[in-house]
């Protein structure tokens, strides 16, 4: 009897520890299962009937073109029938990936690079097939799309845990768009069956649940805008289906709230990227179409944001792409026309826009056809908490006559291990401390601006928390000449670096004394520079340490010419004069610089011309004419975007993170802990039975704290 009692007493402790082991794993894994709603079904006859009843013929002309975020590459979109034919044959060629055998099955969702995985999980295959069906009426395309979607639904329904890009926010939004357009074509086709319609609609409802889940909502980037748009498009198509009927107003409020901080009052998208300026404008345009189709009264504030954002986008548009600020594709140079360097080519109009709150300054010159001939873009934006940021404050992108003369690195591929360096200071010509961190504590502001008779001026400064500050003054003298004056100050002696990346157009560059020259096909870019105390000058191309002399193009990167300069950070200055010309003799005239302070300096050319800055005025004398440019102090103000973003953070953070590898490790550790604690409990029971109860209590208390720590701290 006593032996039975003792065994029962130990077994009780063992079962308690085992229960805690199960509880720990419940704490570890239930949030994953719950967040992705893996146990919820869908595709019931009731849902399909409601979808049929909800037929929105009057809306479809507006809704069918709402496709922002769908991951069909441009090269495919321009030739969908040809690619659809390849898909029917069981293969497809994707730039940057190669020839892919589609008969492998849905395991392709986890193969190759991340860009392929996003495309595959974002349903680019059925998207191409549906577009080809609409163009040709060939039902074979629609049947192949049906087979893919039905098979995908079974593949996805079998998943318990997130893998790859299957439940990625962008992929789900893209998939939802494609599913809605497939349904519109499928429901009236000869292929329609009750069985497969349920499979299709199960995928639609699952996408709706994922898109409307606040814990998966990427509120601070364009991904959140895509999630909102995709859900509201589905809700417009299927208003009576439960998941859309219940969550429609919540997601609509989410969308209206997001555009208050995603786009500022000037119309600038806060994601530090000219490329994403266009993307967000396209998403917002599509959202307005959905709201119009759904008979929703659009707030005037949203209309105003859209128009302002379009205006800014039009102003930075080069006609062949956008300035490579942040994650923006670098567009290769177009062929130079023979009239490029003729004064008859130029119009009489030059323009500027300075947005101190958004961190942009743009100068541009139009040609006689009112197209952008020359453009300078300076950025100093740093919107903490927003996406696609590069460490690039005070950087310049100079473009003229169809050529990227001076360029930042562009949209470096996520699949390249050097992306973190490219996102840092090495990816732009912004002056910075050597080894300054990407996320250093810093702030920038515009100080002065001015414009007169085609000469444009801006003065911006950046201060870093450790005592370093840099000022950059940019003067566009003409569509072919630009002057940059940098000055540095610091609380101690350190090294500051400036790295000028020359565009891919320039095939060969050479350095000689204080002159750097690059040649193209029939043109030349010259850079004359001076410095108070330069410590290093080096011409680099395709260098790894520091990362320099690179430009990203699509899913690859290629070496370009670059010029690296280093100075002492304490009380020093650099001056750079760029001149673009059609060739001939040495391009840039020599000069001397008398630098008294950042607001008082005098640059004298050897030919008698000069550019000087005094109190409140910039004097430019070129070709015998004096142009006095009055300088005005820039009024910096807070647009309130940061406060609005903070409110959104309070509502939507912490965002759920799957962290599957960590959860697996914790589960394994909990198993080991269970065996160790059970063994300790057995030893205490066998040899120190009088303290058995205390040990059991302490063990339970410890395991309880482990549960609280994992649920409230570790996985948040």
Distance between the termini: 50 Å
Radius of gyration: 31 Å
CATH architecture annotation of the largest domain:
Distorted Sandwich
- Low-confidence segments, given as residue ranges, are 1-6
CATH topology of the largest domain: Beta-galactosidase, Chain A, domain 5
Structurally, how many domains make up the residues? 3
Oligomeric nature of the chains: single chain
CATH class of the largest domain: Mainly Beta
Number of helices: 18
Question: Can you walk me through this structure?
Answer:
The two termini are 50 Å apart. Helix 6 runs parallel beside helix 9, helix 10 crosses helix 11 and helix 12 packs antiparallel against helix 16. The chain has 18 helices and 29 strands. Strands 14-15-16-23-12-11-10-9-29 form a nine-stranded antiparallel beta sheet, with no helix packed on it. Strands 3-4-5-6-7 form a five-stranded antiparallel beta sheet, with no helix packed on it. Strands 24-25-26-27-28 form a five-stranded antiparallel beta sheet, with no helix packed on it. It folds into three domains: 2-22 and 659-714, no CATH class; 55-312, Glycosyltransferase, CATH 1.50.10; 317-378 and 388-638, Distorted Sandwich (Beta-galactosidase, Chain A, domain 5), CATH 2.70.98.70. By secondary structure, the chain is of the alpha+beta class. Strand 27 and strand 28 form a beta hairpin. Residues 1-6 have low confidence and may be disordered.
Key descriptive features of the protein:
716 residues; Glycosyltransferase; Beta-galactosidase, Chain A, domain 5; 18 helices; 29 strands; 40% helix; globular; disordered N terminus
């Amino acid at each position: 009897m006593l032996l039975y009692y003792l065994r029962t007493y130990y077994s009780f402790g063992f079962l308690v520890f085992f229960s805690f082991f199960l509880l720990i794993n419940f704490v570890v894994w239930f949030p994953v299962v719950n967040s992705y709603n893996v146990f919820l079904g869908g595709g019931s006859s009731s849902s399909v009937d409601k979808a049929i009843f909800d037929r929105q013929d009057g809306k479809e002309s507006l809704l069918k073109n709402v496709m922002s975020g769908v991951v069909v590459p441009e090269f495919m979109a321009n030739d969908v029938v040809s690619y659809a034919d390849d898909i029917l044959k069981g293969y497809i060629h994707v730039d940057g990936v190669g020839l892919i055998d589609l008969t492998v099955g849905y395991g392709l969702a986890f193969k190759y690079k991340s860009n392929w995985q996003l495309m595959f999980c974002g349903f680019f295959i059925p998207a191409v097939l549906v577009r080809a069906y609409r163009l040709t009426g060939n039902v074979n395309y629609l049947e192949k799309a049906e087979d893919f979607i039905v098979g995908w639904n079974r593949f996805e329904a079998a998943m318990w845990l997130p893998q790859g890009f299957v439940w990625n926010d962008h992929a789900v939004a893209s998939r939802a768009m494609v599913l809605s357009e497939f349904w519109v074509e499928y429901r009236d086709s000869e292929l329609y069956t009750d069985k497969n319609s349920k499979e299709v609609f199960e995928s639609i409802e699952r996408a709706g649940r994922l898109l409307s889940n606040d814990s998966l909502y990427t509120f601070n980037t364009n991904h959140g805008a895509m999630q909102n748009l995709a859900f509201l498009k589905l809700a417009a198509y299927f208003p009576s289906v439960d998941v859309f009927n219940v969550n429609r107003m919540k997601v609509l409020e989410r969308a209206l709230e997001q555009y208050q901080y995603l786009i500022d009052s000037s119309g600038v998208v806060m994601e530090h990227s000219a490329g994403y300026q266009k993307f967000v404008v396209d998403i917002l345009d599509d959202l307005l179409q959905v709201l119009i189709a759904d008979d929703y009264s659009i707030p005037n504030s949203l209309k105003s944001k859209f128009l302002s954002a379009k205006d800014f986008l039009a102003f930075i548009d080069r006609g062949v792409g956008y300035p490579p600020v942040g994650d923006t594709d670098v567009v290769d140079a177009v062929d130079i026309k023979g009239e490029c360097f003729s004064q008859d080519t130029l119009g009489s109009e030059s323009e500027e826009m300075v947005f101190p709150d958004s961190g942009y300054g743009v100068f541009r010159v139009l040609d006689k056809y009112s197209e952008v001939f020359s453009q300078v873009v300076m950025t100093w934006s740093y919107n903490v908490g927003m996406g696609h940021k590069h460490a690039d404050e005070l950087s310049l992108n100079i473009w003229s006559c169809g050529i990227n003369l001076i360029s930042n690195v562009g949209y470096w591929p996520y699949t390249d291990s050097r992306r973190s360096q490219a996102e840092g200071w090495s990816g732009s010509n912004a002056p910075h401390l050597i080894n300054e961190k990407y996320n250093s504590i810093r702030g920038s502001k515009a100080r002065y601006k001015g414009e007169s008779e085609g000469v444009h001026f801006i003065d911006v400064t950046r201060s870093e928390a450790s005592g370093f500050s840099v000022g950059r003054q940019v003067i566009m003298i003409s569509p072919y000449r630009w002057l940059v004056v940098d000055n540095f100050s610091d609380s101690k002696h350190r090294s500051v670096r400036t790295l000028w990346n020359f565009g891919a157009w320039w095939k060969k560059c050479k350095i000689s004394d204080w002159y750097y020259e690059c040649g193209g096909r029939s043109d030349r870019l010259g850079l004359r520079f001076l410095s108070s105390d330069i410590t290093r000058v080096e011409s680099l191309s395709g260098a790894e340490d520091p990362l320099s002399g690179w430009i990203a193009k699509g899913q690859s990167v290629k070496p370009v010419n670059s010029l690296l300069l280093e100075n002492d950070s304490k009380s020093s200055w650099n001056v750079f004069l760029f001149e673009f010309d059609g060739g001939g003799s040495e391009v840039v005239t020599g000069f001397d610089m008398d630098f008294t302070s950042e607001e008082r300096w005098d640059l004298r050319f050897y030919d008698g011309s000069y550019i000087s800055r005094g109190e409140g005025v910039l004097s430019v004398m070129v070709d015998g004419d004096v142009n006095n440019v009055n300088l005005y102090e820039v009024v910096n103000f807070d647009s309130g975007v940061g406060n609005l973003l903070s409110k959104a953070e309070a509502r939507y953070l912490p965002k759920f993170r799957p962290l599957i590898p960590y959860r697996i490790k914790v589960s394994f550790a909990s198993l080991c802990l269970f065996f160790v604690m059970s063994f300790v409990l057995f030893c205490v029971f066998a040899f120190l039975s009088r303290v058995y109860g205390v040990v059991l209590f302490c063990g339970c208390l410890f395991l309880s704290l482990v549960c609280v720590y994992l649920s409230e701290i570790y996985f948040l």
